[in-house]
Every structure is written in C-alpha cells, then in structure tokens.
Automatic annotation (TrEMBL):
Gene3D superfamilies: MFS general substrate transporter like domains. It comes from Comamonas resistens. The keyword Transmembrane helix applies. The keyword Transmembrane helix applies. It holds the Pfam family MFS_1. The chain crosses the membrane at residues 12-31, 51-69, 76-94, 100-120, 141-160, 172-191, 212-234, 254-273, 280-299, 305-326, 338-356, 368-386. Keywords: Membrane, Transmembrane, Transmembrane helix. PANTHER family: MAJOR FACILITATOR SUPERFAMILY PROTEIN, MFS PERMEASE. Residues 214-396 form the Major facilitator superfamily (MFS) profile domain. This is MFS transporter.
Length: 396
C-alpha cells in the first residue's frame, strides 16, 4: 500500500472512529445532570456525574499519552474503546439499581475513552509532514464529530425510554454499543510506531516549554474555549428543563450545539490557512462571548438554542485554532509530552469548572453563569492581541 493510500485510509478510520467515540459525550452531558437529579437527594450534586466524567478525562490524558508512547496509539485507542463499552454498562446498571455512586463510576471510566478520542486530532497531525497541512488534518478528523452530533442526541431521544422501568438506562447501554462498534475501526489503524518520527537531539524540559509565551497563549485559548463551552453545555439542559422546556427540547438543543461544534470543520482548516491561527482563534472566542450575550436576552427556546449554536461554532474556531497554535510550540521529539500536558490543562480545568456548575446554577442562576464567562474571554483575547503585536514587531 502506498504512503498516500495508507494516509487516506488511516484518516478515514480516524474520522469514523471520531464519529462513534464523539457520540458518547453528548449522551453523558445531556443526561448526566438529569440522571443525577433523579438519583441524588442533594440538588447541588446533580452535575457530579458529568463533573466526574470530566475529571476522568483530565486524569486519563497523561496515562493515555504514556500508553501511546510505549505501546503505540492503536493499542491505547483499542483499550480506550474497551473501557468505553464497560463504562456504558456500569452507568446503565447504576441507573437500574438507583445507585448514584455506581452511575458516577461509569461516567468516570468513560473519561479514559474520551481522552483517547480527544487525541485522534493529534494522530492526524502525525500523518502529514508539512506543518501547513496540520490544521487541515486536525479539521478533517474533527468532521467526524459532525456525525457524532447526529448520533449522540438521537440515541438519547430514541433510547431514553427504551426500558420503561429504568428511564435513561437504554441510552447508556447504547453508549456501550457505540464504543463496541468503534473497536474494529481502531484495530484497522496503521499508524507510525512510537517515537518513529522523533528527530535526533535532546528534547527541552517540559517546564521550559510550558513557560514559553507561545505555549501559554495556546494553552490559555484551549482552556477557555473548551472550558466555557463545557461549562455552559453542562448547565444548559438543567436550565432549560428548569425554565419549563421538555427533556426532548433540551436534548435537541444539545444536538444543535454539537452539530455547530463540528460542522464548521469542513472549512476551519482553510480559514486558518487563509486568515491565520490567531485570528480564527480570536473569532471563536468572540463568538463564545456572543453566545453568553444571547443567553442573557431571555429564557425562551430560541435564546437557549441560539446561544448553544453560537457556542458550538465559537468552540470549533477557538479550539481548533488553539490546537493549531500548539503545534508551533514543540519539536517532533517533544510532541507526546506537550500534547498530553496541554490536554491535561484543558480537561483538568473543564473538570474543576464542571464540579462547580451545579452549585453555581443553583445559586447564581443561568444569567450569572453567562455574565461570569465574559471577563475570561476578554483576558485571552488580550493575550492573543499582545502576542500578535510582539511577533509583528520582531518581524518588522
């Protein structure tokens, strides 16, 4: 098989695996808080299953990267999918037995699978040699999320009442089935072996890389883009139901949101190539702020859905742009540790923020959450602007 054919084949498998693996988070996020309300007597603990999922994702980034470095990406991805199967079954059993702790264990285990799915975008960059093509490779794999945006919420709608005695359990059994379907795709990957593309020479210490302005800005953009998106996405279904909208309307809102997250991926790589990584990242952050502004205008279905759609597009531009910025921060020999540390920061922040979302929604309300996000966006926009100015002065 030629190199070009092998690259296309691997890229196609990654897109397909992304479409199945990316369907799990919408199921967990759209139902986790509602199941939490059903199983927990403490209303402030209702988002704990989603928060524990985010924590599991964050804590899994470093061991997942270690396994990829030692065994190769394919073996780590297969293990991740197997844990995805187990996690869905455990979560469903937690619902069936009205056991809040068991349900949380299931969502926590799903975090390792999610950490592997998140790294598919980095696997795509390993398949191309030219730095200019990396943003397009990232964007192409993220297109798989568009299919996931259809699969995940529709699974919720079709299966949430499939087992009448245990509402929502059917959706988590379906989550396990989706991970099972991903296994043969991941087994078919033929990716570069560990360290095969590392250049000779000593890699810089991680502390040195982490202190560089390039890394700080790229990581901050990724943290804020993903963190705010996840925070609002976690709170939105409960806020919608609390405002009198139905569970189905909340699930459809998440579906439109996830569609908006991934649909722009068809053009994001080309936009980055034309306008630059920083401009597209900044545009994404501005759109996230606009989502908060729209949410503050009212509590009708149009306001919720419109804000979730803007939030999704903003995340796409902001997160893919931040990922592309990250590729400027490391040499090939430093790739694995820098990617893992970046994802640990991003998803660790998401987990910390997620733990407070239920309490904040309960105390400050939906409007308080949306007001609170605006200063964070402003800070990162300022950082991007200062970095662009410094680079312009250096090149002058």
């Amino acid at each position: 098989m030629s190199t070009d054919n092998n690259t296309r084949r691997n890229m196609g498998l990654l897109v397909a695996a992304q479409s199945l693996g990316g369907a799990s988070p919408p199921i967990i996020i759209s139902l986790g808080g509602l199941v939490g309300q059903q199983l927990s007597s403490n209303p402030t603990a209702s988002t704990l299953p989603v928060s524990i999922y985010q924590l599991g994702l964050a804590l899994s980034t470093l061991p997942a990267a270690w396994l990829m470095n030692r065994l190769g990406r394919r073996q780590a991805y297969v293990l991740g999918a197997l844990l995805g199967v187990v996690s869905g079954v455990i979560a469903a059993q937690g619902i069936a037995h009205s056991d809040f702790v068991t349900f949380c264990i299931g969502t926590a285990l799903a975090g390792f699978y999610a950490a592997c799915v998140q790294s598919y975008r980095f696997a795509a960059t390993d398949l191309v040699d030219e730095p200019a093509q990396q943003a397009k490779a990232i964007s192409r794999v993220m297109v798989g999320g568009l299919i996931a945006a259809i699969i995940g919420p529709q699974v919720v709608i079709w299966t949430r009442d499939a087992l009448p005695a245990t509402p929502f359990a059917g959706s988590f059994y379906s989550q396990a089935a989706l991970a099972l379907l991903a296994l043969p795709l991941l087994m078919g990957l033929r990716l570069p072996p560990p360290q095969s593309r590392a250049v000779a020479g000593d890699a810089r210490p991680l502390k040195e890389i982490a202190r560089s302005p390039q890394f700080v800005v790229a990581a901050a953009a990724g943290v804020v883009s993903y963190g705010l998106m996840a925070f609002l996405m976690t709170a939105a279904p409960m806020a919608m139901v609390g405002c009198g909208h139905s569970v189905g309307e909340a699930a459809l809102g998440i579906q439109w949101h996830v569609l908006a997250m991934f649909a722009p991926s068809f053009v994001t790589g080309r936009l980055i190539a034309h306008f630059g990584k920083r401009r597209i990242t900044a545009l994404g952050l501005i759109m996230i702020a606009m989502a908060g502004g729209l949410a503050l205008l009212g509590l009708e279905l149009l306001h919720f859905w419109g804000a979730l759609i803007l939030l999704g597009v903003g995340w796409n531009f902001g997160f893919i742009g931040a990922t592309a910025l990250l590729t400027e921060c490391y040499r090939p020999a430093e790739r694995a540790k820098v990617q893992a540390f970046n994802d640990f920061l991003v998803f660790g922040t998401v987990a910390v923020a997620s733990f407070g979302s239920g309490e904040l929604l309960h105390t400050a309300g939906w409007n308080g959450i949306n007001y609170g996000m605006l200063p964070l966006v402003a800070v990162v926009l300022l950082m991007l602007g200062l970095q662009a100015r410094r680079q312009k002065m250096v090149s002058a």
